[in-house]
Amino acid sequence: MFQQMKNIDTAFRSIRSFAVIVVIGSVSLCGFTLYKSFRLVAEMQNKIYILANGKALEAYASDRKENIPVEARDHVRMFHQYFFTLDPDEKVIQANITKALYLADASAKREYDNLKENGYYANIIAGNISQQIKVDSVMVNTNEYPYYFRCYATQNIIRTTSTVSRSLITEGYMRNVSRSDNNPHGFLIERWTTIENRDLKIENR
């Protein structure tokens, strides 16, 4: 009888040990599953999918600090393209200048007013002149705020009889503002000035 009780006690201990192992394994599995689920959700929250021409393109969310140099350079590039891309059409000129002035402060507005008073835009319309710009490079110093920038670009002024290539160098500062449809990068150009604007070559057409 004592042997039978001993066998029952041994069997009970074995079952108890097996049950403990199963419980521990189940808890560990559940914990691992929860950890992987939360990690997957966190990774998915950093991904954005954009539809372009019927295709889903993956974009990644990141800290603004990581993108400041890239966004700042693109902001400067956009401003110069809007401000200096002109065609002999008053509506086109006004539309481009309006877009540019959303990206800069009163220093750009003063430059526009000066050009307008000197008849620059009227001459473009009257002479059927087109003006294009190619931004060669933009240097931005993000170590100090507001961020200093210098822009190097080439202007092409296309007249009926000739094409003039000009070197354009400008500088200024940028500060942070709220993002909007009119200002997607969230920067505002301040103290914008032209350092150089000289003829490089003239080609007859």
UniProtKB/TrEMBL annotation:
<feature type="transmembrane region" description="Helical">
    <location>
        <begin position="15"/>
        <end position="35"/>
    </location>
</feature>
<protein>
    <submittedName>
        <fullName>Bacteroides conjugative transposon TraK protein</fullName>
    </submittedName>
</protein>
<keyword id="KW-1133">Transmembrane helix</keyword>
<keyword id="KW-0472">Membrane</keyword>
<keyword id="KW-0812">Transmembrane</keyword>
<dbReference type="InterPro" id="IPR022276">
    <property type="entry name" value="Conjug_transposon_TraK"/>
</dbReference>
